[in-house]
Each structure stands twice: as C-alpha cells, then as structure tokens.
Design brief:
Two copies of one chain form a homodimer. Chain A is an alpha/beta fold. Helices cover 46% and strands 16% of the residues of chain A. Chains A and B meet through helix 4, helix 5, strand 2, helix 6 and helix 11 of A and helix 4, helix 5, strand 2, helix 6 and helix 11 of B. The first copy, chain A, binds a DNA duplex (30 and 30 nucleotides) through helix 2 and helix 4.
Chain lengths: 345, 345
DNA sequence: GCTGCGTGTTTAATCGTTTAAACAAAAGTA
DNA sequence: TACTTTTGTTTAAACGATTAAACACGCAGC
C-alpha cells in the first residue's frame, strides 16, 4: 500500500547482498566495508528514496522507539500542554509518542495500556486513575519500563515525577491568610488519588497550623467527572455556609473553570467579596476580569524528567528515579487585599 | 522485553501447529476446525494470557490499524479537542491514533509525515501548514489514503472536511452590522492558507455588500506564530485608527486570547465600547467578563467525518469524499447592542 | 475395492529487517 | 612457500505472525 522499496531492491540494484545494505545503512562494521560499495549503496538508497520499514526492524530488534503516554484527558489543557512537551522531548531522542485518554476509568486505562503493549511500545508514561494499582503492579512484574506522571501510589515502588501538592496547597492557603482572609474554602475531588489527598490535606493542615477551625461546609468534594452542576452546587454551598467563605482554593483547572463561570454570572466581586486561587494554569485564568492567582506546575521540567527517566530506564532496566518538584504560586489580582485594590489597579 | 508468549508457545502446549492456533484465534475457516481443539486452543491462550504481537501481524498483513493525525499544535485547545474526538472515533473502529504537531512548519510537517509512514500508518488525517502542497501531492502519488482536516488546497483533489469559513465570517459581520456596529475591524493571519483567506474575504465581502468602506487599518494581519506583542500592536492599531473600530472579529482562538488579555487591562468596556466575536470556542470565552460571541465549528461532526472518510478510503482506495460544513454563530453578551445591555443583564 | 469428497490439521513460504557466523580472496608473516 | 590475519562480503537463521496449498484420513457411492 505504501513505500515498497526494500533492502532487497537496493541490494539487487547494487549487486550486493541485503545484509551488506543493512550494514551500510546502519553504519555497522564501518571499518570493514569498502568505501566504494558503501557509497554506491548509499547513492542507490537515496535514488530509490528508500526508507526503512520500522515494523520489520522493530520486530527483529524488539525495539520500537515508541513511548506510550496515557493521561486522563488529552483535551484538558493541562494534559495537552504536558503531552506536547513530552512529544517534543521524546522526538529529540528519536522517539515517537502515542497518546491515550483514560477518562479516569481504570478499565479504559487497562485497555489502553494493553493496546499500547501489543504495539510494543518501549515504555510507558502514565497518569494512572484511581484503582489502577493492579495494572501498574502487573506492568512492574513484566519488567515494562514505566514512569508515573503527576500521580503516584505510595505503596508501589516506581519511577515518578510529581509535584509537592501538599506544600503547594499549604502555600496557597498561607498566601490567602496573609492577605487577611480567614474563612477559606476549598473545592476539590472526592478521590483517593494520593496527589488529590495531599492537596486536600495541605489545605486542612495550613488552616489548622494557623489556628483556624475548618468548618465542615468549607471543604466541598465533587466527583472527578467534573460535572458542571455539581461544581456549581459546591460553589453555592460555600457561599451560603455560615460563616460564608471569603476565599476559595480550587483543586483543579476544571473545577476553577466551572466555578468561575458561575461566579461570573453572580453579583459577586473578585477579589473584594471573594478571593480565588486555583491549581494549574490555563489561559482563561488571565482572562477572568480579575486575573486569577494560581499554582504553577513546572510543566517543562516535569515532561523532560519523565522522558529522561523513562529513557534511562530503557537503557538500564531496573533503575528507579523519582522527583517531587516544587510548584510555585503566581500571584495575580484575584487575591489582592481589598484595601490594596485601588492603588493596585 | 515484554510479553513473550507467542503462537508457537500455545501451539506447543496444545500439541498442534502454530497455523491452527492462528486460524482459531482469528476465527478463520470456522467450519473446518473441530470444536474441541478450538476450545482447547482458546483455553490455553487465555491461560497463558496471550496477546498478539501487532508488529508481526502488521508486517505480514501490511495493515497496522493505526492512523496518523497531524495538527498545528496539539496543545491548542481547538486541536486538542479535535484530536480527542478523532482518537475516540478511531478507537471505536479498533484503530490507534498517533499524533504530531507541525507548528505550521512545512519542514517539520514533512518530517512527521515520514516518520508516520515509516511506522506504516494505514492513513493520515492532516491539517497541512502553508507551503506543504508538495508533501500532499507526493502522498497522493504514492496512493496513501489521506483526509485533510480544517484546511484544504483548492488545486489538489483530496478528501477533506472543512467548514465554510467564508460564510462564517460573513455571518459574523452581518450579526455585528445588525447590532448597529459599522466600524468593524478584523485581526487575522497573514497567510496564504485557503481557509484563512476565506475568513478574511468573508469579512471584506460582508462589509462591501452592505456598502461599508473597509478602512485599511481595520484589517490587521499578524504572523501565524501568534506573537503576543504583534497581536497587541494590532489591537492598538485598530483602536487608534481613524475612525476607530466599534467591533472586531478575531480570526482564531489564539488571536482572541491574546487580544482579550490586552483589552482586559485597558479601560475599554465590552460590548459598549467594543463588540467582539471570535473564531472557535474555548472555555475562556465564557469566562471573559462579557462572555464572547463566537463562531462554533461542529467539532464532533468534523472528527467523525474525517475518520469515516479515511476508513472508507482504506477499504476502497481512490474514493474522494469532501465535506464543507456550516459553522454556527453562538451569540453571547460581547455583541449585545449597547442600548439593550441593561435590560439584558 | 476403487474413486472421490469432506474434514481436520500441517507444511512451508512470506512480510522486511538484523546479525552471528561462514567464507573467499588478498595481505602479512615467518 | 606455507600459514595466519585481515578485509570485504555473503549465507542463513531468526523475529512472530498469516495463509495458500498440501496432506492424511475416514466415509459414501457405485
């Protein structure tokens, strides 16, 4: 159906064996091959516009130069940005990336992992959904190189690249406290995923450390499906709590988007009536009428590390490398102290 | 490195030939094979947790069940959404998708196409950058099934799925005119890409049809690299033109984002002082303080059609199918008539 | 009892590479 | 001259599947 010129064709035209062509084109045994034949073979290859059949090559060498990347949802800007960085990074090292979206569904995740394995990816970079420990463990048993991304399971020894979500949450809350807010709420996911627990716990701990009692209604948990209605309900619950909140931390960019959409339509002023901070940057945060303070993950670094860990694992199976990077707080108008607002503007 | 159980292993354990195992597992010659052996083979396959090596299978059958998708930038929400739809659609048909971002660079595009071909994708869905006609034509000569997405070259007969950009621009301008604006500007790309020309021409034609003279400064062209500074300059130029504009149409979501960021920081009220419309939806448009009217592409339909055209081309090489879909205008607050604004709010 | 047919299974070639090992001829060494 | 080494190239077996064709066997028909 496609390119049909093979090693044999070149060999025939050059009057040599296919093996020799393979040697030349791969620069093997370079000392032995005569310069003249080498040149001739290269010329003919160029002439016939030869390009190697990766399938055959991979079948023989058991190496596809392909890595699989599974994120929750490739259409989420956070995932898409990370995917792009990983794609570029992999490409620099001559690797092709194949993507998949798990939709936070462990069944779908498992299925994706297996189609990738059937296609013999050399390794996997994974953002595993909840309840996918078994899949990860079985990959480990099969000695398949993996790196977990953005998430990890404390009970499983694997390579991973994550951020310190606990500290990030703490920092966000401290910042809010420092601007005079004390009635701080959070909307995050009702999930057992470790990184989400840490976001939640960081919030709780920061308040406790500062002697603020966390009212039950201040912590709103929503499903990881990001249902708009559910998130709106959570916002309303926060606002109508007694005492109502004067600041809120959103556990993800999706939660932030849905919440801000509602807030935009209410007669509620940010940051006067309500300060907001959210996890992860998206462009929309800068476009909100009061640009939103956010917790910035070092995406470049995360992507680069994930690829480099995976590749070094490929060379040297068994190596386990982990990184917990620090997120940074990017302060914008949405958390300005009300009294500083006018001079700031 | 990975799964090591092959047809032979099953054959050995079952005491039959590998061929028979292949027949059973692929449900070929179903009438001939004895029910007993078939069952035995299936049992053993399950027991050994066999899964077929796609590389070997593809090498033999010359079919990878993989499609390649190249967009401008997978981290752009528009591309990411489309990619996700295509991924899902392909998966329904048992196809895996591999992605790539061309960054609007014909060289990179060509390179991506070739790495995908070396990996023997069955076909390609492409959003070609400017000056990539040669690549497309060479694919056609090699009879490689392709479908162009979002873009097309009028001189080349290929399958494609696009929207009617000319009509979409016209509709946007007509809408603005109908709300009483007459000094309508546009910021779009300085590109020879047909779909972008059509966006530009639709704008010009709509104004001309309504007897509005298009001032030269009303049409601002920027580079397709989406340079923030350049886009900001364009916005300023529109505003400081004489006469200055009272409405503007943005040629893409990137242009809109960059422009709105600036507008957000100016003391300019949307829609009173300036009405805005943009091409393509992103969530950020709903989060702008005055939710932005936009031209909505039917992404689902585009993605589904692209995949279905490609797959039918795979079955029946040579078929050319094209679709020009209609975009719809989603009217939000950013284009409300100033006099209707208060009752609307 | 021979022919022919249907059934269940195997043989063997093939896809396009890689690569260890074999080989033949030329060059070095003693 | 005879023997080893070096040099340039070929042979042939794999990788893990698919698939046309061959095969062996039991059974019906005449």
């Amino acid at each position: 159906m496609q390119k049909r010129v093979s090693l044999k064709d070149i060999a025939a035209k050059a009057g040599v064996s296919a093996a020799l062509v393979s040697y030349v084109l791969n620069n093997r045994l370079p000392s032995r091959i005569s310069v003249a034949t080498a040149q001739k073979i290269r010329d003919i290859a160029g002439q016939l516009n030869y390009s190697t059949n990766q399938l055959a090559k991979s079948l023989k060498t058991n190496k596809t130069n392909t890595i699989g990347l599974i994120v929750a949802d490739i259409s989420n800007p956070f995932s898409a940005n990370l995917a792009r960085i990983i794609e570029d990074e992999a490409e620099k090292c001559q690797y092709t990336t194949i993507f998949g979206s798990s939709d936070e569904d462990p069944g779908k995740f498992d299925k994706l992992v297996h189609t990738m394995l059937n296609r013999k990816v050399d390794g996997l970079i994974l953002s595993p959904p909840a309840k996918s420990e078994a899949v990860i463990e079985s990959l480990q048993q099969k000695d398949i190189p993996i790196v977990l991304l953005d998430r990890y399971f404390p009970g499983i020894k694997t390579s991973y690249v994550i951020i310190d979500n606990f500290a990030a949450s703490m920092e966000a809350v401290h910042h809010l406290l420092s601007t005079g807010r004390t009635r701080i709420g959070m909307i995050t996911y009702d999930s057992e995923l470790q990184h989400l627990l840490e976001r939640k716990n960081g919030y709780i701990r920061a308040l406790e450390n500062n002697g603020v009692r966390v009212e039950k209604e201040w912590l709103q948990l929503v499903g990881i499906e990001n249902n708009q209605q559910q998130i709106e309900d959570a916002v309303r619950a926060l606002l109508s709590a007694t005492p109502g909140v004067d600041a809120v931390l959103f556990g993800s960019n999706k939660i932030a988007t849905s919440s801000l959409k509602l807030i935009n339509s209410l007669s509620l002023r940010v940051p006067c009536d309500l300060a907001v901070i959210c996890f992860d940057h998206t462009e929309m945060l800068d476009l909100f009428y009061s640009p939103v303070t956010y917790i910035k993950q070092p995406l470049e670094e995360i992507g680069e590390l994930a690829v480099s860990y995976l590749l070094s694992n490929l060379l040297h199976n068994g190596t386990i490398s982990t990184s917990q990077l620090k997120a940074s707080l990017v302060i914008q108008q949405s958390t300005t102290r009300p009294d500083e607002l006018y001079q700031a503007k």
